[in-house]
Every structure is written in structure tokens, then in C-alpha cells.
Amino acid sequence: MCGIIGYVGNENAVPIIVEGLKKLEYRGYDSAGLAVYADGAFEVVKRKGRLSVLEKEIEQNPISSFIGIGHTRWATHGNPTDENAHPHLGHQSKIAVVHNGIIENYKQLSEKLTAKGIKFSSETDSEVIAQLAEYYYKGDIMETIIEVVNKLEGSYALGIMCLDEPDTLIAIKKDNPLIIGVSEHGQFIASDVPAVLKHTNKIYHLNDKEIAVLSEGAVQFYNIDKEPLQKPLETITWSSESAEKGRYPHFMLKEIMEQPKVLSDTINSVLNRGNNKTIIDNLDFSQFNKLVITACGSAYHAGVVAKNVFEQLCRITVEVELASEFRYKDAVIDDKTFVVLVSQSGETADTIAAMREAKSKGAVTLSIVNVVGSTIAKEADFCIYTAAGPEIAVASTKAFSTQLVLLYVLAIRFAVQLGKLSQGAEQQLISEIKTIPGKATDLLKQVDFIQKYAATCVGYKNVFFIGRNIDYAIALEGSLKLKEISYMHSEAYAGGELKHGTIALIEENTLVVAISTCKRLYSKIMSNVRQVISRGAKVLLIGDCSASEPSDKLSYISLPEINELFSPSLSVVVLQLFGYYVAANKGLDIDKPRNLAKCVTVE
Ligand code: F6R
């Protein structure tokens, strides 16, 4: 949560910081602020509300500087107010700090400072960092920062400026992401790559407790003992356009539409590499007796879909666990367990904790991650990257789809290794996977119908998503997509569960979205459809609609033919478009839904 950016260089830092914050707004958007050095003092502007409020303020009262730090907030401690917005200054206005993370012992630390007469001006945990820094500062800012972070418990990514060293920007992190960008005209710190892509694709990934000292022409790295470090400069392959909305009204729609391309890119990255072996080829599952998949939110749903695929192909039992539960449940795992972590950002706090828990018990970990160099990518024993490119909309779409295809390929590889799949069957399944991007393209052509249908759905009080087996797995994702961006109440149920309670909720003005791609379960799901229609619901049927006639109660969207195991990759496209257009018809802020942030780096 929260996005931070900093710049020092030979251009005006203010527009660079504001532009960078726009790219980070997905990480938090209840208040924003920046601090720049000007004429021997810090100028701080911070405002409650969206970034546009801050922008307006700066337009009316322009400021400029060659160095500054900025922040976009997702409140954890203290309401979204001007005072609680970052940056925070110490009591002498000598040190300015932006912080992403949570300081767990801030109360004890701030009580000690308050007892010494230091007055706090916000309710945040973050202000204590600036106050402590000023309290300990004796002329060496790096020394001071080391002293301060040694007293902090919790997580942090920090951008820091000190009046006595006005040409220097300092960054340090623990358990929250921070990258350093280097360009021709200056150096950057940022929570994520898209914030700097317009200026550079050359970046350093900062590791925990490494310190970066940035000046106009150079970046130097140190460890926590102040010893200099050499770090590899990485080149990011994402283009700057990939972080722009282009002609689309929302990033979410752009990202849905990009799916055929990113699916192809991801499939090619693991299947069409000639003689170059990928990590998937090198993994040997036969030494393990248990497979666990753990993740959060949509990534967890990718795991639920994958459970069906692994179990069908490998004939092994697979556990899928919410990372937030897994980390605290004392899971029964050991060195014979293979744990797969799925994460777009690679920085989700619960998934990181689940990974560390699994590793501490001896399990072998593989991460499926989108953001290169992120914590989960780096710390897992193995990592496979999805080639989704930057996903900016808070609601995951293309990252989810690319996670699915990698999980399918993994399941096929493991099934072969376990002797459960012949070479012929393997090739057949791989050929099917390769058809997914083309079939997704065909589906996206049905956008007009889905848009029109969604326009009729804004008034429903309750929406239920039902399916059986793998269709139930994808129903979970359909329901999450709708509720998180349209704020409509929705739930997903296994079709067979309706009669055990949920059917009591079905009445006039209820919508049921039924997913039906499993041929052997077609009559079962259709029986559920009839049950809900006869109780007043309207139904949108997605999948095999061959035996049903549309009516005023029943609408349907057919999917292209595909092996059932991979059908979630197609049904999800319809579910994403449906959720998107319902929210669009309600005129909501789709890319930045209320209370949510893209990257959940706190518990
Ligand atoms: C929903 C959504 C979230 C994320 C979840 C995990 O659309 O995007 O549920 O899937 O917060 O995030 P990552 O994948 O970054 O670990």
C-alpha cells in the first residue's frame, strides 16, 4: 500500500514527481503529497483526496526544485487528512520522509519522543521516522538513518531528504518494494517500475536493509554497516506505452483487451524456446509427495482453478490455501512438499509470509510472479514470470489469465513426470493451450453484446455466480471482479450448494451468472438454472448453451470449443468484461475502486 517516488536531477522535480505519483496511484489514493528543497527549506504540499486535488493546488501555487519526494497514501494509521498525508517532517523541519509500510512499534517510539517534549503533528505511524531521525541527527544523515531503522519494527520503504545535504536523496527498505531508476537527466526512487518508465528502463532493485544514496549524477549503494555495495543494473523490457491508458477509458479495459497478446507472450516464454530449457523443464516433481498452492485474491482463484487441472492431470491431491490463512495455520508440510506461490506484484505481505513459512519448514517453493525482481520472485527457490506487462488497474485481469496458462503448463509437465500423461496426450494439451490467445480474441469481439447486457444489470441487489468443479473455481473470480469494481453484492456458489441454503436468497431482482463448460455436468448446472429461474431470478449462462433457448429470463454467451480444463481462460474474459461494463454503467472509478489498493503490502 502507498506509493513513493523521489527524484534528484537537472530537471524540475515537481512535474516528474506528480507524473510518477499518477502511475503509483493504484497503490493508494486517499491523499497525496510532495516535499521539495527550495531556498534552504522544505516546501511541503499535501492534500486529502485524489492526486488531482494536489495537482490543482500545485497549479495554483507553482513550486519547482531539482530534488523532491512524493507519496500517494492508502491509510492504515490515521484517517485520510491533510495532516496525515506524507511527506512528514521532523519537529525542526530538517528531515523529510515518505514511507510505505507499517511501523509496528510506533506507539512506544513516539511516547518516548513525546516525553522528551517532541510534538507530533499527525496520527500516523510514519511520522515517528522523521521525528526519530531529527532526534538522532548529529550531522551524518546516513548514520542517522541506520540508527533509526535499527529501532523500527515492521515494514518500510523510505525516501528521505535532509536540509544539510540538499543534493542527496536517501532510500532504504525492508519488506516493501523500492527500485532505483537511473536516467540521463537524474536518478529516481520509486515503489514500482511504471513510475519511472517514461524516463528510464534502467533500474536497480533494492534489497532489504540496503541503502541507496542518490545525487544528480550518481547512485551509491551501502549495506547497513555502511560498506559500499556493487549492484547489477537491470534493463526492464516493459515499454513506457504499456503503462499508459492509450485510447481506452480505463486501464482495466485496456488490460482485458491486451490478453490475447500477453497470453501469447507468456505461452511462448515457456513453450517456444527452441532448445533453451526453461525452469519449468528443469523442475522435477517426482521427488515430492504433496503440492500446495497459496496466494491471495484473484491469484488465489488462479490456484483454485489450477487445483482442478493438477488433480485431473496428475491424479494427486492438491491443497489450495489463502496465504493469509496458510501463514498462521502451522501447515503440515515438509521437504517433500512443493509449494507454488502465485502473485502479480510479488509483494503481497501475506503471500511473502506464506512463502517464508513454507521455506522454514523445508518445502521447495516456486513462484509465479509478474513483477520482475520483486520479493516473492527473488526469495522463492524457483520463479517463473508471467509476461503480462504492467498491470495498473487495481482489479487483476491479464495477470490472472497469464497465471492460469503457466499453471496449466506446469500441471502438464508434472503429469508427464509422474507418468500420468503420454507424450501424445501432452502434445495435444499443449496444442490446445496455444489456441487460447486466438479464442480469447474471438471472444473479445462479443464485447458489444456483453456491454449491452451489463447495462441492464446495474439495478440488481444481489448477483450470484454458480458453476460446478472448474466452473465453480472461475465463478469465484467472476464474483470478485464484479463486487470489487461495481460495489454490488455478489457471491459465488458451487451449483450443488444452492439447495443447502443459498436458494433462500433467490427472488425477483436477483441475477444468477451460471458457468457451464463441463459437458458431464451440463444437465446438473441446467437444473440449477431452472431452479433459480422458477424462483424469479434472471440468468446469464456462459459456456455450453447448445440445449437452451434464450428467453426474457435466460440470456447466454457461448464460448469457443476448448478442452474443459482450460475453459476458465475463456469464461474469465466474459466475466471480466461483464464486471467492467456493469461498473462503467454505474459511472464508477473502475481503476481505483474504493478502499482497495493494488499491492497489499500490509496485513
Ligand atoms: C483482485 C485483485 C486482488 C489480488 C490480490 C493478490 O482483482 O487484484 O485480489 O489478486 O491482492 O495480489 P498479488 O497477485 O499482487 O499477490
Structure explained in plain terms:
- This protein is α/β, with parallel strands linked by helices.
- It has 18 helices and 25 strands.
- A hairpin with a 2-residue loop joins strand 2 (31-38) and strand 3.
- The longest helix has 22 residues, at 423-444.
- The termini are close together.
- The model has no long low-confidence stretch (mean pLDDT 94).
- The structure holds fructose -6-phosphate.
- Fructose -6-phosphate is lined by residues 296-299, 343-345, 348, 351, 395-396, 480, 484, 599-600.
- Fructose -6-phosphate (F6R) is lined by residues 296-299, 343-345, 348, 351, 395-396, 480, 484, 599-600.
Q: What's the structural blueprint in terms of helices and strands?
A:
Blueprint: E1 3-9, H1 13-24, E2 31-38, E3 41-48, H2 51-60, E4 67-73, E5 88-89, E6 95-103, H3 106-115, H4 127-136, H5 141-149, E7 154-162, E8 169-174, E9 179-182, E10 186-190, E11 202-205, E12 211-215, E13 218-222, E14 228-229, E15 234-235, H6 251-257, H7 259-271, H8 279-282, E16 290-295, H9 297-314, E17 318-322, H10 323-326, E18 337-343, H11 349-360, E19 364-369, H12 375-379, E20 382-385, H13 398-417, H14 423-444, H15 447-455, E21 462-467, H16 470-486, E22 489-494, E23 510-516, H17 522-533, E24 538-543, E25 554-558, H18 568-585
Parallel strand pairs: 16-17, 16-18, 18-19, 19-20, 21-22, 21-23, 23-24, 24-25
Antiparallel strand pairs: 1-4, 1-10, 2-3, 2-4, 5-6, 6-7, 7-8, 8-12, 9-10, 9-11, 11-15, 12-13, 13-14
This protein binds fructose -6-phosphate.
Fructose -6-phosphate binds at residues 296-299, 343-345, 348, 351, 395-396, 480, 484, 599-600.
